[in-house]
Amino acid sequence: MTPEFSPPASGLPPVPVTIAAVGKDMLRLAGRVCDGVRLHGFCTRRYLEEVALPQIQDGLERAGATAALRSVGW
Questions:
Q1: What is the pTM of this model?
Q2: Please, what is the Cα angle at 70 between 65 and 71, to 5 degrees?
Q3: Which DSSP helix (H) or strand (E) runs through 18?
């Protein structure tokens, strides 16, 4: 932002950033830079376990956040 734009602190927590992701690249991106991911409604458990979670974990590791998925029981 420009130096002229300096809004006062609101005292509120940051807004979580989530993205919709299906493909491997977007899933990795979600793990690397987002607070959450929104999967398709027709995502199967098999796809979740075999594709989505490993890609998100890879993104987390690239960001240095390896414990994040373990904290939600993965």
A1: 0.74
A2: 90
A3: strand 18-20
